[in-house]
Amino acid sequence: MTRGIAPQRLQSLTISVLSCVVGMVLGCAPATNQNLESNNNADPTAQPAGHFAIGRTPTPREITAWNIDIMPDGEGLPTGSGTVAEGRELYLAQCKNCHGLEGRGGPFDRLAGRLPEDAFPFDQDPLAKHTIGNYWPFSTTIFDYTRRAMPMDRPGSLEDNEVYALTAYLLFLNDFVGEEARIDRETLPTIVMPSRDRFIRDDRRGGPEIR
Amino acid sequence: MTDENDSTNKTDPSGGADWTRREMLAVLAGTASAALAGTAHAAEPSSAHKQEPPADPTRTPGTGPSARGERSPFETTERIAAYGVISGTPLHQLHGTLTPADLHFERHHAGIPNIDPSKHEFMIHGLVERPIKLSMSDLLRFPAVSRIAFLECSGNLRIDAGPETTPQFLCGLTSQSEWTGVALSTLLREVGLRPNAKWLLAEGSDAAVLSRSIPIEKAMDDAIIAYAQNGEALRPGQGYPLRLFLPGWEGNTNVKWLRRIEVSDRPFMTREETSKYSEPIKGGHIRSFSFTMDARSVITTPTYPEHIERGWHDIRGIAWSGRGRIAKVEVSVDGGRRWENARLLGPVLPKAHTRFSLPWRWGGGTAELSSRATDETGYVQPTRRALIDARGVGSIPYHLNPIVSWLVETDGRMLYKAEPWG
């Protein structure tokens, strides 16, 4: 309460002021204010006035270290780049055993495979295989997921250039780029995946209709 | 080793189907061994109880109290682990609605991390006025909230199950606990949302660094940053020391081992919410961000592998809906020709497993037992035909909640009514 009153509490200004007065007597404990306010139908878990001021402000370096997500428009992509050829070499060494030669035939997810005219058999064919090329809506997700979770036995071990190279190779295997391609923060978001516009938001709403 | 079984075997919510995969996972991620170790520990009775029970317990002094209780050695209920990445709750061996924490289902995407709670930190940043980093002891200082609610994996139906299938194997990836923690709305008010804050990313500190986008409306409604389950700290398989809990929403969004929330103006389109946990549906569409678990029920007894005798039985089961309270559960004993309202055992809580019961006298003929839930929105649990007609036969394996049935043979043997999908 030494840091001012949050906007969402303005409607309770009168109550907050009252609480402050009582709070000072009782040592300004947020829990005391909270109990008083619960008698006035306020949210008992809401801040009494201002903020609890618990915890600390992370340093910019701490935020950067954990802020690893990549947006579909490329926001978050690091500097660096990689080529299809570099990616193929990395793939054969670190990915092939799980995902198969050229992204097919391994015991884990099949990664490669566009369908003729980018057809969509998936609602009617339970056996149709989902791949990057025929199902994933955004190319940036390849970079994001590979960097955060792959390879499975050494997650987080790939350098950014290596992730770009693997992304380039997977895009090549799915016929999105040529064999000479180099992928970086500028080029990756420009690759449009054929399934992108097939993704719709949940249209189930409860009620009697089965959707 | 089968070819490319991940997408082929869609009945497996983990995405894989054979022992080769399981063994590989065990080696790669240590998940199978971790799950087995946990099971072994839970099943280990204290030495005092290993002895043969006396014929008359009133004539032998009993054992004294202990630091930590164990189940009776006669109670051997366990989860079933599969593929190294899931384990199912023994629904058919439990009573009431609360799942013992060590029997709560599990789904891991890169194994269970080993986290020291004194070193764990949780950060909120992005479109906020004041980014914050909190220790576990910091979190305990905020006002606590508690709620009893179910948690269900959205890939919770074995569509290729055969007649010798238990409810646990069929749909054991649902469990219920009392979850305790800090309301996420409290923390978001603490950091101050910017006006354009619309979505947030919840991210775990497991080896998958699993991440899901959550709309801000849910975060401000009933989301909990949970540190406790059924009165004690979370179990490691449930996200120890901290997880996101979103009442009524598909299990995968309830990010475990939570370390970061980033507030944004748009969804992040992570792998988990695009290539997985989305459903191809009729019309060439892929339904995404399908968070809410539709209403569902399952009879838990009598079911396979029971043999029943003639006379009275209590048909019991659980029903639940991610949209609110269960309004009604109907039971049929003749394959769905006639339905009778079952009794709901209170309390009937929103977004919670609700126990139902219907006494039934078996006269010795064949019978087919089914249950059908209706929630307070008027949604009626569909048949599998209705689901397939609405979405397409390829719309698997997520959000499948059909009416399921159990057959009574004339000799009293119970079997799951296995039907082809489509």
Question: How would you characterize this protein structure?
Answer:
The complex is a heterodimer of chains A (211) and B (422). With 211 residues, chain A is mainly α. Chain A folds into 2 domains: 1-55, no CATH class; 62-198, Cytochrome c-like domain (Cytochrome Bc1 Complex, Chain D, domain 2, Orthogonal Bundle). Chain A has 8 helices and 3 strands. Chain A starts with 12 loop residues before the first helix and ends in a 10-residue tail after the last strand. The relative contact order of chain A is 0.13. By secondary structure, chain B is an alpha+beta fold. Chain B has helices spanning 5-8, 19-29, 31-43, 136-140, 167-171, 184-191, 216-221, 384-391; strands spanning 80-82, 86-88, 106-107, 121-126, 132-135, 144-152, 174-183, 199-204, 211-215, 224-229, 232-233, 243-245, 258-264, 279-281, 285-288, 296-301, 311-320, 326-332, 340-341, 343-345, 354-362, 367-375, 405-408, 414-416. A 5-stranded mixed beta sheet of chain B has the order 5-4-13-8-9. In chain B, strands 6, 7, 10, 11 and 12 form a 5-stranded antiparallel beta sheet that branches. At the A-B interface, helix 2, helix 3, helix 7 and strand 3 of A face helix 1, helix 2, strand 5, helix 6 and strand 13 of B. Strand 3 (199-201) of chain A pairs parallel with strand 15 of chain B.
